[in-house]
Amino acid sequence: MDFRQDDNAIRETRSRRVSRRSRALAGTLALLALGACGSLRNPPPTDPDDLADYKAANDPYEPLNRKMYNVQMWAYHKVLRPVGKAWIWAIPRPVRHSIANINETWREPAVFFSDVGAGKPRRAGDAFMRFAINMSAGVGGFFDVAGLVGYNQHETDPGLTMGTWGVASGPYLFIPFVGPSNFRDGAGYGIGQGLTPINYVPRGYDLLTFNWAYNVAGTMEGYASSIDQIDHVEQDSLDPYSYIRSAWQQNRQSQIDTIKNDDRATTPDWYN
């Protein structure tokens, strides 16, 4: 599977992550409770080479995580993949792109505050401008007008910000219907939800219906956009679980390094 993402793949990845609402918190709590059981945790091996691999994988709860992965894949083949295929068939591509754009736009405040926390004013400014432009000229985020004028989408979340601070990731976790995570990113997810304005829609208003539609459509688009990647991993990998774990961990570390090394001038390129 190629993890080099073009603009559409990045947009689809955002929509998948933004759509994971209360399930993420519930899944994390369930994993932590189950992880207390010794039978669901691998003890450190005594052989030096095996111990090095054990530490590199950072997956002491591998027995539990593999069970959760199997639950996810059972649901994928029985329900999620067929429904995702139907979604792709029924929903025109421009509409699907607009759904991804909405998810990105409503998440920009969380990106902004994460960039501020990471001490990256240029990135924070880009996120601010993306939100302002797309919420106005982009009709509430339906269109990525900000990208057309040079404010391209970028990835930052509270988990990544804590990573730039040197906060340890903690053990790897696989949460059903959410995917790969860890203790640091689980906490970061909760913070990110608190920074996402769509979560503060008051009950009794018509916007509450939009909130539900936003979550459902984002979830559907996320699963649908992942079908080809998941199928390739299953077909091409001897151990898909290990492949996904390694790829995800490397990608998160690469994102942290990208944020750390982003030392662009505060003023945007067009100002110069």
UniProtKB/TrEMBL annotation:
Pfam families reported for this sequence: MlaA
Domain of life the protein comes from: Bacteria
A GO BP annotation: intermembrane phospholipid transfer
Keywords: Signal
GO CC terms of this entry: membrane
The keyword Signal is annotated on this UniProt entry: yes
Family: Belongs to the MlaA family.
Protein name (Swiss-Prot/TrEMBL): ABC transporter
